[in-house]
């Protein structure tokens, strides 16, 4: 009897189509139009090893990217369903038609058309699901590439023409004043620590949410934070952020005060707090044998979306135009503020974890005299 493996990259209930990598241990192991050498049959003795290694594909992309791709691909599936098209594998002309439909959509919140970045993400999701299912990806068809190249140069589309503004010292002062109006010590200390650590360390919101107590080292005059993984460090290379206590709005004492008040000694650094603001919610981390998608808001720690909402909330209270600010504003504020403080590019890259100096060009505006 043949034994097959199915490695899914989306929830089984996501659609009527099974989206994943399939490999039958007694049939040719193919990928798209490529056929690789295969033994006539693999002995039963290696089957367990094969499945054990194949299970690692769960970690090939981040949970957040997997969630975004799942949502993005669902839009394409729905479009194909409405027009009686096949979504997997898909005809390149179906992709082009989908782009034509999507680029004319208006966002309810802004009245603007979808950005090129949003459309690129949806195309990336289609590519991802095709590769995972073992099909050639129609997104690499020359005509699809030409359409996307033209879209990136189309200056006549009505899209938002601004990025999130940086939160720098002036804005942080206003945010801290808004936080100080919070009557509950737990909320006040947690949210101060989030804002000050986010700014000084140039953290992404997902990085803030994933920080754990044992990643922190309180030195004599600085706070060192270890990042086992980040967007630019997917392979778990050693990465530290060294945050001097001498800088304005340094995170050292803010984080220490939060830990002292909350009595957190291990696990996630930033926790959920009860509605009355007086106690931490019950905390637990799901069993590693369960898919990462089963993590829920009931786990007792904040996720990236929670961080985003907290920043927005205090921007509104501080009188800042909230539509221009978000969790990424802390990261961009870190880059911009260090540049204003006359720090060189290598120093800034060491702080933020950027690996390519070209990524900083967007932030490094000419300084005023």
Write a structural description:
With 369 residues, the protein is mainly alpha-helical. The protein folds into two domains: 1-161, Orthogonal Bundle (DNA polymerase, domain 1); 169-360, hpI Integrase, Chain A, CATH 1.10.443. It contains twelve helices and seven strands. The chain has helices at 44-54, 63-82, 92-102, 116-133, 142-152, 169-180, 185-201, 205-210, 252-262, 304-317, 328-340, 345-352, and strands spanning 4-8, 20-24, 30-31, 34-35, 216-218, 222-226, 240-244. It has a three-stranded antiparallel sheet with strand order 5-6-7. Helix 2 (63-82) packs across helix 4, helix 7 (185-201) runs antiparallel to helix 9 and helix 11 runs antiparallel to helix 12 (345-352). The radius of gyration is 24 Å and the shape is globular. The relative contact order is 0.10. Mean pLDDT is 79; it is low at 1-27 and 287-297. Residues 162-369 form the Tyr recombinase domain. This is Site-specific recombinase phage integrase family. One of its GO terms (cellular component) is Holliday junction resolvase complex.
